[in-house]
Amino acid sequence: MLRFLWVAWLVCGAVAAAAVAVVVSPWWWCAAGPLLALAAPAVADVLQTRHSVLRNYPVLGHLRFAMEGIRPEVQQYFVERDVDGRPFDRDTRSIVYARAKGTDAAEPFGTELDLYESGREFLVPSMAPVAVPEQPPRVRVGGPDCTRPYEMALLNVSAMSFGSLSANAVLALNTGAARGGFAHDTGEGGLSEYHLRPGGDLVWEIGTGYFGCRTRDGDFDSGLFAEKAAHPQVKCVSLKLSQGAKPGIGGVLPGPKVNAEIARVRGVPQGETVTSPPYHRVFSTPRELVRFIGRMRELAGGKPTGFKLCVGSRRQFLAVCKAMLDEGVSPDFIVVDGAEGGTGAAPLEFADHVGMPLTEGLMVVHNALVGTGLRDRIRIGASGKVATGSDLVKRLIQGADYTNAARAMMFAVGCIQAQRCHTNTCPVGVATQDPRRARALHVGDKSERVRRYQEATVKSALQIMAAMGVDEPSQLRPHLLRRRVDPQTILSYADLHPGLLPGQLRHDPPESWAHDWHAADPDRFTV
User: Fold this and answer.
1) Does domain 139-518 have CATH number 3.20.110.10?
2) How many Cβ atoms sit within 10 Å of the Cβ of residue 272?
3) N or C: which end of the chain has fewer CB within 10 A?
């Protein structure tokens, strides 16, 4: 509130000076003029809903937009890069912002300085393009043991918890999902009223802390889980094994963010830092994991049930596949999170050096499921720096059935990457529990941006597929994505990652897979 006190004083001073100028002496206009010139935009900034920065920082916030106009082009080299060296740069952010605002994203950005890097990976266009479908396809999620399958969109909101995000940010994301007909993953922070109020479809994620369905001792509460999973907006339930930004360790929510409301939603003490355990209590072997997935599906009334992971060891994932075959139980979906993903705080060494990048992780999971004969019953989601239509198409080629976006969705609701998430002082109200800062995020405006961004990105993906001569995602194949491996050599993903035949691992595993397949133990997680 103190941030707006000066606006009130400014308005009062401007009005007073103008009154004195009219009644006493025209010389007072020398003071009244500048004050009125500042007061008018200050009031306009507070009342407008389009820019969160200006709502929180009236007048002063205009400096940010001025600096954006004169920033040096070399700034693009200082942005965060993924493990392949490709930047999630200002051009990508510009595309997300443009689509969220409903403006044309098909504008030129100039010639890349490094033609080798810009052409390192590319999709193959066809000399016989096809028509773009009028309606985007949906992906049916639900295996043979699922009695309530769900039609998933090609692009959805990835896991971001209430607590990490403000109530208004969650409301905007779910309202956008409801308007656009796509799913919203809750993240592991529990199921809040802000997820439920707008009416958007939900994927309820359960992490190692079992927030929202935990006992006082931190164990899984099956009764509480069944009660909440029965909510009609919960379309799928997901067990989080690990996330790309920090595989192998739990998330942390600083104590200042744990207010009474978050403490109630998560079932934790108020004001205390919440650290999720690095491992699950409900299973310790691949076989126990598979059984628990089956139990979750029963408790959820037959709704699609799956798990999310950042792949590390191919042998461990094969052990899970063996457990599926032995138990006759399989998840309805698996979400693969890339090591380059993640929106929240993570130790730098984990973010940079632990876990498999999304490309390799996707192809390991896809080929392992094909090779064990399980692929037709399990859908694969991809999460990790999915922001544009080309990202979406590449992930479908690499083995995904659908994609999830987190950081791009944060951009759509107004994130400016101030990197103040952990301090509770987010300047645009996205990653804060300070109600005075969160109020800057106008739910009506930002939810429409979320809807527009998702719609435009899926449309872009369909246009790219049509240019490749592809009518639907199932026709995409690895040979349609090429990669330059050195200045003289270009290979397709079919060459870089040879695929397996259905059931091949069970009968005649190829030499490159044989050692891991034979060493995989459904009763132990061995690397």
Assistant:
1) no
2) 12
3) N
Phi, psi of 144 (to 5 degrees): -65, -25
Helices (H), 302-375: 314-327, 348-353, 358-371
The DSSP line for 193-222 is: HHHHTT--EEEEEE-TT-TTSB-TTS-B-H
**Residues 421, 345 contacting (CB under 8 angstroms):** yes
The CA–CA distances, whole Å, from 408 to 142, 324, 505 equal 27, 34, 37
* DSSP 8-state secondary structure symbol assigned to residue 87: B
Who's near 127: CB < 8 A, 6+ residues apart?
469
CA nearest to 305, candidates 223, 352, 235, 363: 235
Instruction: Report pLDDT for 94.
Output: 73
Report d(CA 470, CA 126) in Å as an integer: 9
- Segment 431-448, tens digit of pLDDT: 888 888 888 889 999 999
Report the pLDDT value the prediction gives residue 67, as an integer from 0 to 100. Answer: 53
Query: Per-residue pLDDT tens for 344-386?
Result: 556 666 666 677 899 999 999 999 999 999 999 999 999 988 9
The string over 111-140, giving b where at least 16 C-beta atoms fall within 10 Å of a residue's C-beta and e elsewhere, is: eeeeeeeeebbebeeeeeeeeeeeebbebe
**Within the chain, which residues score under 70 in pLDDT?**
1-7, 9-10, 13-14, 17-18, 20-23, 32-33, 35-91, 93, 97, 104-119, 245-246, 248, 341-353
Size of the chain, expressed as the number of residues it contains: 527
Please compute, for residue 375, the number of CA atoms within 13 A of its CA located in the half-sphere on the CB side: 22
Tokens of 230: 């029965």
- Give pLDDT tens digits for 323-335: 999 999 999 999 9
Sign of CA dihedral 122, 128, 132, 136: negative
- For the chain, domain boundaries: 2-68, 139-518
